[in-house]
Amino acid sequence: MTELYQSQRAMRAMRKTAMQRGVIAVLDVGTSKIACLVLRFDGTDRLASVEGIGSMAGQTGYRVIGANTIMSRGVKFGEIDTMQETERAIRTVVQAAQKMAKIRVDHVIACFAGAEPRSYGLDGQIDLEGHTVDDQDVARVLAACDVPDYGADREVLHAQPVNFALDHRSGLGDPRGQVGQTLTTDMHMLTVDKAAVQNLVHCIRRCDLELAGIASSAYVSGMSALVEDEQELGAACIDMGGGATSLSIFMKKHMIFADTVRMGGDHVTGDISMGLQVPTATAERIKTFYGGVVATGMDDRDMIELSGDTGDWEHDRRTVSRAELIGIMRPRVEEILEEVRARLDAAGFEHLPSQQIVLTGGGSQIPGLDGLASKILGQQVRLGRPMRVHGLPQAATGPGFAATVGMCLYATHPQDEWWDFDLPVDRYNTRPFGKAVRWFKENW
Q1: How far apart are the C-alpha atoms of 202 and 200, rounded to whole Å?
Q2: CB neighbour class for 302 (10 Å; exposed up to 12, middle 13-18, buried from 19)
Q3: What end-to-end distance do the CA atoms of the chain give, in Å?
Q4: Domain coordinates of the chain in residue numbers?
Q5: Half-sphere exposure of 155 toward its Cβ, with a 13 Å CA cutoff?
Q6: Residue 444, class by beta-carbon neighbours within 10 Å (0-12 exposed, 13-18 middle, 19+ buried)?
Q7: What's the CA angle centered on 28, arms 173 and 163, to 5 degrees?
Q8: SS3 state of residue 345
Q9: Residue 245 pLDDT more than 80?
Q10: Where are the beta strands (DSSP E) in 114-153?
C-alpha cells in the first residue's frame, strides 16, 4: 500500500513538472484504437491550472497542438495481451502526434478500460476540538477511513474524498477553513487488477516515456461526456468501446462507482463475421455503414452486397437484407446493455435523485441504440459527445474520443486524491465496508 501511495504521489509531482515545462501528452490505450493528444500550456494560466483542483475548473490555459490515432495492436478487453505489438503501436502514435506538434514529449498520462475495476465506499471520522479545518485534518480524516482487504493482486487506482460533513452539515465539497467539532468524510476507492496496470506501466516505460499519471477510462469518459448538471445531480456514463464497455456513476461532481463489462463493439463485429461468414474487416465495414438495432418494414427490402474474394462465385456475390443484419446485431447489443443494467442495479443507481444515462464511446454510434437502451436501462438516455477542447481536430470530436478528451481535463484539473495529502501511513487498517453508493441515500 505504501509503495503504491508513493508511486502515485511521484506521478502527481511529475505531472506538475511537465505542466510547468509547458507540454504533456495524453494516451488512451483502447482495444480498437490507441489515441494520443499533445497538450501545450500557455504561460498566463499555467500555474493556476497546475494548482487548480476540481474537474470543471475551466478550459483556459491549454490547447491541443498534436493528435494522432492508430489501430490498436495487442490489446484485448482493454488490457495488454501482446507487449511488443502494443509497444510498437504506442511508439508510432506518440511519434506521429509529436511530429504534428513539432515538439518532443517526455511525459504522458494514460487511461485504459479493463483490469476489472471494483468500487468501495469508505468512511472516516475525527474530532477537531473546535479549531479550523486544515490540510492536516483532511489527511487525518482520510487516514481514519477503514480500508477493506482488497487483495494482494489488486492496486488502488483512484481514492477520492467525495463528501465531507462538519458536525451536522453534510454535502461539503471542501471543509478547509471552516470551524467545527467533528469532521467526517465519505471516500470512493477504485481498485484494479495489479498485473494489468503493471503491464501498461511497463509498456509505456519501454517506449522511453515517463508516466505522469494513470486513470480509469470509465472515470475520464464521464468527466468529458457528462455535462456539469449531470455530474452534480447524479448520472451514469456508459462508454461502449471495442473490447470493453466502461460505466461510471457521478454525483456531486465526483465519481462514486465504476465497473467494466468485458464486451463491446468488437463482439458485435465478431457476431456479424460468424453469422454472415465474412472476414472481420468486411463485417466491420457492414456494421459501420448499414448496422442498426431497430428493424422497420423497409429493412426487408434493403439489400446489402457481401463482396468477397474467396474464389467461390456464389459465396462472393451474396446479398443479405438489412433486417437480417439487425437480427444478428441486436441480441449482442441487448446482452451488453442487460449486463450494464445489472451493474447499475448492484451499485444502487436507482437511489440517486437523478437517473440520467449518457451513452458514449465508438460503439454508441449504432443507429437506434439510444431507443433500445432507454427500454433496457430506463427512460432518461441520451447520446453523449465529449466537450469541446481548444485545438482538437474535427476527427477527434466524436463519441469514440470521450476518454481521450476526458484525459485532457484529468491532466489539467485533477480532483483531490488520497495521495495529495500527507497521510500518516501507519494508520491503514483493514475492515471491509459496504456498498459504494450508500451515503447518497442518507445524505441527499
Answers
A1: 5
A2: middle
A3: 32
A4: 118-191+423-443
A5: 20
A6: middle
A7: 10
A8: helix
A9: yes
A10: 118-127
- Model pTM? 0.84
Q: Which of 280, 379, 304, 260 is nearest to 71 (CA)?
A: 280
pLDDT in tens, 285-344: 888 888 888 877 776 777 877 766 655 556 556 788 888 888 999 999 999 999 999 999
Q: Which three cell numbers stand for residue 294?
A: 431497430
Q: What is the C-alpha to C-alpha distance for residues 55 and 63, in angstroms, rounded to an integer?
A: 17
**How confident is the model at residue 340, as a pLDDT?**
92
- Tell me how far apart the alpha carbons of residues 392 and 319 are, in angstroms, rounded to a whole number: 40
CB 19 within 8 A of CB 41: yes
| Residue 435, helix vs strand vs coil | coil
Instruction: Show contacts of 42-49: CB within 8 Å, 24+ apart.
Output: 46/19, 46/20, 46/22, 47/20, 49/19, 49/412, 49/413
343 alpha carbon, distance to own chain's centre: 16
Identify the DSSP state of 78: T
Helix axes 83-101, 194-206, angle to 10 degrees: 50
Report how far residue 358's alpha carbon sits from residue 383's, in angstroms, rounded to the nearest whole number.
6
Place of cell 427490402: 301
The pLDDT assigned to 429 comes to: 44
Query: Strand pairing partners for 161?
Result: 187
Residue 15: phi, psi to the nearest 5?
Answer: -60, -45
Burial classification of residue 305, based on how many CB atoms lie within 10 Å of its CB (0-12 exposed, 13-18 middle, 19 or more buried): exposed
CATH number of 118-191+423-443: 3.30.1490
Report which of 92, 164, 84 is spatially closest to residue 128, judged by C-alpha positions. 164
